[in-house]
Design a protein that fits this description.
Helix content is 17%, strand content 42%. It has 105 residues and is of the alpha+beta class. The chain has a domain of 70 residues: Beta Barrel (OB fold (Dihydrolipoamide Acetyltransferase, E2P)). It has a seven-stranded mixed beta sheet with strand order 3-2-1-6-7-4-5, with no helix packed on it.
């Protein structure tokens, strides 16, 4: 009986841990892919499923390994993870994380 109780307790612990929130930002949508288009007002990111258009603005942050980088890093071909929110029906990029090293110049 004690072995059965231990198994039940272990299963309960696994369920609690699995149900814990992940490190994702609540309220954000995440897109992983490569930049295909970039201009002063938006970027397009090709994901595995589709190409997503995201507005960028003065509040958009550009990061590499957690450190701020210049907006000029956003170039066609750059591999990114974008955290975005829906605002007035449009997706707005809040943070663009560059996931690979900057290409050689």
């Amino acid at each position: 009986m004690h072995a059965w109780l231990r198994c039940l307790l272990a299963a309960a612990v696994v369920l609690v841990v699995a149900a814990a929130p992940s490190g994702a930002h609540p309220g954000f949508e995440h897109y992983v892919g490569a930049i295909t288009v970039v201009d002063d007002e938006h970027v397009e990111v090709k994901t595995e499923k589709a190409t997503v258009s995201l507005r960028i603005n003065d509040q958009t942050k550009y990061l590499r390994k957690g450190q701020d980088v210049h907006r000029k890093e956003a170039k066609v071909g750059a591999k990114v993870v974008v955290d975005a929110r829906r605002e007035k029906g449009a997706l707005v990029a809040k943070e663009i994380h560059f996931v690979a090293e900057a290409p050689a110049k």
